[in-house]
Amino acid sequence: MRKLLRHWPLALALVLAVCCGVCVWRLWAVSNLLPSQQAAQRWKGDGLREFSQISFFMPGDQKLTLDQLYAFRNDMAKKLKDASYDVERETGLFNDAWGASGTVKVANGRRSGEVQVFAVGGSFFDFHPLPLLSGNYIKPNDVMDDRVLLDRETAWLLFGGVDLSGMSFSINGTPFVAAGVYEHEKDGFSKAAYGEGMRIYMSYPAYVRLFPDSGGVSCYELVLAEPVKGFARTAAEEKFPIKRAELQDNTYRFEPGRLFKLLRAGMKRSMHLGTAVYPYWENAARAAEDRAATWLLAALITGTLPAALLIYQVIRSLVHGKKKLEDDVLPEAKTRTREFFREQSRRRWEKKHPGEY
């Protein structure tokens, strides 16, 4: 018993080291959980070129127009050209998506209901690869822009099932066609942010025709080639036309340095003092950030004692080794060295004076 009590610091350190490992694993899992934050990695694929993902959320009283959006695209092309990219010949240097949200009434005969709509443009589903239950995504190169993607709940409300590609229904009295049905993300952060309401995705041009006074784009996302770290953020921040828009660097948001800043911010982190209304995936990402920061703090706390004990043992071993070296190894080595040279000297003398012994 006394022997066990004598080694309790080591036992505690081992337990804390295991806890630290669990915290690091949970930190990694949370940081890589949300597909909406990994567009840069997916766009990179197996290539060697690095990319960065940037998001802009517009203030409540100011929206991004399509003219401003296209001008910003040209500015990004110029930035890439200045960074020695051949923008005329090289493909895959840039990708973007945008959207606006609202509320509409959907109907199919006697079945109807009010749902939230997100009107999308560009390569939206490259950024948000929602799991499909049937059909296909809305694509920017679709010949017609009357195709709509429904969530499971809306599909059941209107059609009583999910296998309904090509079926017709109406949005605010205007006919549309179901492109497919999706299942929203099942992780806890996205489920909490998504809420209980029903949602659909439709093309941005079709949405503008329904609501000419909608005001413009409320969320803009891009993936940009990153020759050096920070290039995409600096270029986008400099050229984005709405200076009051909130910028989020998705690529680096789960890095330890960023998470430390969240920990230092404390309660201010929970106070949203801006005017931008976040889409559900950004709210989910902010919640995941907070959880990741908590796991990082837990990993630091549980890892401190094992690390200190390891350092102590290393220093102790070095000191003990130095003492053993000075007390045992070096004197013995010196004695052996003296004996070696004495023997060599004796043999040389005997060789020069044979028969004198």
Notes on the protein architecture:
The protein is of the alpha+beta class. It has a domain at 37-251. Helices cover 48% and strands 20% of the residues. It has 11 helices and 10 strands. It has helices at 2-6, 8-31, 39-44, 66-82, 124-127, 152-159, 188-194, 204-210, 231-239, 256-265, 280-352; strands at residues 51-57, 94-108, 111-122, 132-135, 147-151, 168-171, 174-182, 199-203, 219-225, 246-249. The protein has a 6-stranded mixed beta barrel. Helix 2 (8-31) packs across helix 11, helix 7 packs antiparallel against helix 11 (280-352) and helix 10 (256-265) crosses helix 11. The radius of gyration is 33 Å and the shape is elongated. The chain starts with a helix and ends in a 5-residue tail after the last helix.
Describe the structure concisely.
This protein has 357 residues and is an alpha+beta fold.
Strand and helix order: HHHEHEEHEEHEEHEHEHEHH
Distance between the termini: 68 Å
* SS summary, helix count: 11
Report the C-alpha radius of gyration, rounded.
33 Å
Percent of residues in β-strands: 15-25%
- Inertia-based shape: elongated
Average pLDDT, rounded to a whole number, is: 86
Share of helix, binned? 40-55%
Structural class: alpha+beta
Unreliable residue runs:
none
Note the main sheet. 6 strands, mixed, barrel
Q: What order do the strands of the largest sheet run in, or round the barrel if closed?
A: 2-3-8-5-7-6
Count of DSSP strands = 10
